[in-house]
Amino acid sequence: MYIEASAPRKPGDRATLLSSKYLKPTTAACVTFWYHMMGTNVGTLAVLTRETGSIARLVWLLFQIHASHYNLGHLYYMH
Questions:
Q1: Is residue 6 within 8 Å of residue 42, measured between CB atoms?
Q2: How many CB atoms lie within 10 A of CB 20?
Q3: Tens digit of each residue's pLDDT (9 = 90 or more) over 7-61
Q4: In this structure, what DSSP letter does residue 40 have?
Q5: Is residue 46 a contact partner of residue 31, using CB atoms and an 8 Å limit?
Q6: What does each C-alpha distance from 64 to 11, 30, 31, 43, 77 come to in angstroms?
């Protein structure tokens, strides 16, 4: 997934990636991804989990990291 932070983006715009993969509540999950957050208009990168019918839960967050290279994100959490 890619979203450009400069025009025509507006404050509050979001990019959402949904997965239909289901993990049983007793399992652990590992997510690995690359991210790049360079520029004055970069906002927040958040990873949330949500089971059908429940409220989303924040499991990883970055806010306005200004680096001119890609970074590898690792997330390990219990469901």
A1: no
A2: 5
A3: 787 878 887 877 776 666 677 878 888 888 877 777 788 888 887 788 888 988 9
A4: T
A5: no
A6: 13, 24, 21, 5, 23
